[in-house]
Amino acid sequence: xxxxxHPDLCTQAGSFRKLQxxxxxxxxxxxxxxxxxxxxxxxxxxxEHYTACCTAWDEMKQAIATPVLADLTDLLAPVVDRFRDYxxxxxxxxxxxLIFAARDLLRGNEPVRQALAARFAHVxxxxxxxxxxxxxxxxxxxxxxxxxxxxxxxWQDFRIRPGALFLVGDPKQAIYRFRGADxxxxxxxxxx
Length: 192
What we know:
Layout: H1 22-31, H2 36-89, H3 95-108, H4 110-119, E1 123-125, H5 133-143, E2 144-145, E3 159-160, E4 165-167, H6 183-191
């Protein structure tokens, strides 16, 4: 997992560079007595092999990372359990606890959801591209209504009340993926 490809093959961001050697292939083909078109075909073949190698490298790292992450998760489970028990005994909540508690309250208690929806008739969410799916569910439950006759279990079925929710965001500026922000959820919400 710690091995990296040769730095000449990578961009500063760490992804593989495009292989752009067509001119060199054409020059080598000419030197070998082949046509320029032969050089182009050799370049295309080299690009296919290069792309296959880059893909294989990425797949290999993912294949290694998946069981390592699973093992690490198992090893950390007792620590996470102890931390949760400590927070409970000290009556503390962290940021994630607040998100889950708010979501669960709106999800599981219709009278509370309706009362809060009436209290917060208009909601503006700035930097919406940095929200996570749990936060989006909170906004949908707070600013929307389930379809008539529906159970309300799926927040994506909720219809936003006209004027209740105003979102400001730019998916190109999403920077909080490390803490759960999900541009795909942003796009889903924008579509809805």
